[in-house]
C-alpha cells in the first residue's frame, strides 16, 4: 500500500513496523486529552496495551486491515485503520467494513479532517461492494457522538468494555452504522 492523498493538505501513509516509536509518541500525545477521564491513570495503561510494539506488529499482521498514519501539512496528527471484511454483530448477514481506529490530535479540530476520513471510509465501503460501514464508539463523548450522527450513522447494539482499569461507569460502548442505501435510522 502506498500513500493516499485525500487533498492537498491531508494524506494517509501506511504504518510500518519501524514507525513504532513515532506511532507510540503520537498516541501518548493524542489519546489522553480526549479520553483521560475514562481512566484513573489518564489512559496510560490503554495506550501501552493498544499501541505497544507487540500490539502494533499484531495489528500490522492482520490481513485486510490497512493501518495508516494521518498527516496534515506533512505533520503526523492521527491514526486511521479500516477492517475491510468485518462483520457487524447487529447485521451479521450483511457485508461490512469497520472503521476500527480513528484518532486525531485535538489541535487540528475544525479543519474538516475527521469528515474527510469518514468520507474516505464511505468511498471504500462502496468500492468494495459492502452494505455497511460501522464502528464502535464510547457512550460518553458528546462531540464525537454528534459528529457521527451528522455523517448519517445510527446507533446499533450496545456492549461493555472488559477493561478493569477503566472506571466502570464509562465502559459502555455502542456499535453505530451507516448503510450504503441509507435505510438505517
Compile the SSE list and pairings.
Elements (H helix, E strand, L loop, with lengths): L3 E2 L4 E5 L5 H16 L8 H8 L1 H9 L5 E6 L2 E9 L12 E9 L8 H15 L4 E7 L3 H9 L3 E7 L11 E8 L6
Parallel strand pairs: 5-6
Antiparallel strand pairs: 1-2, 2-3, 3-4, 4-5, 6-8, 7-8
Helix pairs in contact: 1-2
Could you give a short description of this structure?
Helices cover 31% and strands 29% of the residues. It has five helices and eight strands, in the order E-E-H-H-H-E-E-E-H-E-H-E-E. An eight-stranded mixed β-sheet has the order 1-2-3-4-5-6-8-7, sandwiched between helices.
Would you tell me the overall average pLDDT? 94
CATH-wise, what's the superfamily? Gcn5-related N-acetyltransferase (GNAT)
Low-pLDDT parts are: none
Number of helix segments?
5
Provide the domain count: 1
What is the helix content?
25-40%
Give the strand line-up of the largest sheet: 1-2-3-4-5-6-8-7
* Beta fraction: 25-35%
Question: How many whole angstroms does the radius of gyration measure?
Answer: 16 Å
Care to describe what's here?
This protein is an alpha+beta fold. It has a single domain, classed as Gcn5-related N-acetyltransferase (GNAT) (Aminopeptidase, 3-Layer(aba) Sandwich), CATH 3.40.630.30. It is 31% helix and 29% strand. It contains five helices and eight strands. It has helices at 20-35, 44-51, 53-61, 113-127, 142-150, and strands at residues 4-5, 10-14, 67-72, 75-83, 96-104, 132-138, 154-160, 172-179. Strands 1-2-3-4-5-6-8-7 form an eight-stranded mixed beta sheet, with helices on both faces. Strand 3 and strand 4 form a beta hairpin. The longest helix is centred in the first third of the chain and has 16 residues, at 20-35.
Amino acid at each position: 500500500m502506498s500513500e493516499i492523498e485525500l487533498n492537498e493538505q491531508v494524506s494517509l501513509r501506511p504504518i510500518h513496523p519501524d514507525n513504532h516509536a513515532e506511532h507510540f509518541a503520537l498516541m501518548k500525545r493524542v489519546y489522553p486529552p480526549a479520553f483521560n477521564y475514562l481512566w484513573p491513570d489518564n489512559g496510560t495503561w490503554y495506550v501501552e496495551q493498544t499501541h505497544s510494539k507487540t500490539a502494533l506488529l499484531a495489528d500490522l499482521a492482520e490481513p485486510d486491515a490497512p493501518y495508516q498514519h494521518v498527516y496534515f501539512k506533512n505533520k503526523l496528527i492521527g491514526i486511521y485503520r479500516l477492517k475491510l471484511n468485518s462483520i457487524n454483530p447487529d447485521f451479521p448477514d450483511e457485508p461490512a467494513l469497520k472503521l476500527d481506529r480513528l484518532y486525531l490530535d485535538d489541535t487540528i479540530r475544525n479543519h474538516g479532517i475527521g469528515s474527510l476520513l469518514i468520507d474516505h471510509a464511505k468511498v471504500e465501503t462502496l468500492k468494495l461492494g459492502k452494505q455497511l460501514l460501522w464502528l464502535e464508539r464510547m457512550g460518553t463523548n458528546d462531540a464525537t457522538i454528534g459528529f457521527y450522527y451528522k455523517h448519517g450513522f445510527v446507533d446499533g447494539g450496545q456492549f461493555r468494555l472488559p477493561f478493569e482499569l477503566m472506571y466502570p461507569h464509562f465502559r459502555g460502548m455502542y456499535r453505530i452504522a451507516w448503510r450504503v442505501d441509507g435505510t438505517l435510522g
